[in-house]
Specification:
Blueprint: H1 2-14, E1 20-22, H2 31-40, E2 46-48, E3 69-70
Parallel strand pairs: 1-2, 2-3
Helix pairs in contact: 1-2
């Protein structure tokens, strides 16, 4: 998958420069890829994960404010 390849090859090189990321409607996004993004994008200020399949497990071990993550709660599996 392109998203997995991107997370493994491109993000280690440019992740520290990413401050905003829109992954809304990304059907290929899963918990593992989301955790990898959080690990590699240390300067991330905003990420849109609305209409994705990720769960709260993606954020386990991370101190993240809810303003940081944009969700459409009705269409997400995430329970807050």
């Amino acid at each position: 998958m392109i998203l997995t390849y991107w997370a493994k090859t491109l993000l280690p090189k440019i992740g520290k420069h990413i401050t905003e990321l829109d992954l809304s409607n990304c059907k290929a996004l899963n918990n593992n890829v989301t955790r990898r993004i959080l690990q590699l994008c240390l300067n991330l200020k905003k990420i849109d994960l609305s209409y994705t399949k990720i769960s709260a497990n993606s954020f386990r071990g991370y101190l993240i404010s809810f303003e940081f993550i944009l969700f459409n709660i009705e269409s997400s599996n995430l329970k807050i």
